[in-house]
Specification:
The protein has 15 helices and five strands. The chain is mainly alpha-helical. Helix 2 packs parallel to helix 12 and helix 4 runs antiparallel to helix 5. It is globular.
């Protein structure tokens, strides 16, 4: 018989979240998050941040599920979707695509974050049809001991009812007067406890976090690198999730999530500022050394795709293949990018940008 279970109640819980530790953590997290929102606006084309940072978030989130990939595999999968790149890297890229799909649907629906969007992200992430769980038997186990830690709801009708309640809470006006960051922590715990999908719940739940912050207008675009903190504190993350279920330990859980927001906002600030600085330096160099090549579109291409190729330049600059090849070869000749040949494929790496990702991540 499956045990233990948890009686999932509608949000919010009857808990006082105005404690001194939470209020102090909220002040820090909101301050750094506001700085990140403002700094991101200084990038000439914020699509660059969505593309590049979404891949970084995807990598960190997938590593929580033990889908481990290197930066090189990650960008090669982006470069050659049907060929080069490991299976793990391609799965990471699907996470990035699911995040972008969720953001596109959020914008297209006047800020509604619906169960239909979560199901669409699940289908893209898992590359199959389906949705909320239909058959019983799901149990969450300790990775080391194999012991059953938690049994989510088993009945499909109950899952749908709980997810409908969660959807209503996500999209309602803030009647409970809780800070949006506290609400994000509650929403994440509720989603992970319902565990509505057959698999992929962890990754969908982490996408839900950043989409909710965007919905709440704490971010303009979903660039918060939240999964890194969870990856580095994986044992604590799962323990604190369970402590709420067994002991009602909401304060410790909320504090963990607020610390995740603050720390990953600071790390993302470093990335955003590094990208801004590198873009300005490359812009100056292109104008000085290769004025006939320079365009804002070319600059954007080299930062949207840390690994780029002729096809990307043709598509985004509207030039011929011959012209695109000439541009990239000249950039490589001047040491602005590095040219790599694998078989019949050539690609070009913005090495300084990739190194920035590695430095902020603490190596790879």
């Amino acid at each position: 018989m499956l045990t233990p279970t948890y009686d999932i109640q509608p949000l919010p819980p009857s808990v006082d979240f105005d404690t001194v530790p939470i209020l102090k953590a909220l002040a820090r997290a909101n301050r750094v998050l506001a700085e990140l929102k403002g700094r991101a606006a200084s990038i000439p084309n914020q699509t660059i941040l969505i593309d590049t940072l979404a891949l970084q978030e995807a990598k960190a989130s997938s590593e929580i599920e033990n889908i481990v990939t290197t930066q090189d595999d990650l960008f090669q999968a982006e470069l050659f979707p049907g060929g080069l790149g490991s299976a793990a890297a391609k799965e990471v890229a699907l996470y990035r695509d699911a995040l972008k799909l969720g953001f596109d649907r959020l914008r297209a629906s006047d800020g509604l974050l619906t169960n239909a969007t979560l199901i669409a992200m699940f289908r893209l992430l898992k590359q199959r049809e389906g949705g909320f769980r239909e058959t019983p038997g799901t149990a969450l186990k300790n990775e080391v001991s194999g012991e059953v830690v938690f049994v989510p709801p088993q009945d499909r009708n109950q899952i749908i009812k709980l997810m409908d309640g969660l959807e209503a809470y996500v999209n309602e006006a803030n009647r409970d007067q809780l800070d949006p960051l506290v609400r994000m922590a509650l929403i994440h715990h509720q989603f992970e406890s319902i565990h509505p999908f057959p698999d992929g719940n962890g990754r969908i739940g982490r996408i839900l976090n950043v989409l909710y912050l965007t919905k709440a207008e704490l971010l303009e675009i979903p660039i918060l690198y939240l999964s890194r903190h969870i990856t580095r504190n994986k044992a604590s993350y799962y323990r604190l999730l369970q402590d709420v279920r067994t002991d009602g330990a909401w304060e410790a859980w909320v504090l963990f999530m607020l610390e995740a927001v603050a720390e990953t906002s600071e790390a993302t600030l470093v990335l955003v500022e590094g990208i801004r600085t590198q873009m300005q330096a490359m812009k100056t160099r292109l104008r000085d050394d290769l004025p006939k090549l320079y365009s804002q579109d070319l600059l954007n291409n080299l930062f949207r795709h840390p690994y780029t190729r002729i096809d990307f330049v043709v598509s985004e600059l509207g030039v011929s293949r011959q012209t695109a090849a000439k541009y990239l070869d000249e950039l490589a000749a001047h040491g602005i990018v590095d040219k790599i040949q694998v078989g019949r494929n050539n690609y070009f790496i913005n090495t300084a940008l990739v190194q920035l990702f590695l430095d902020v991540a603490g190596g790879d």
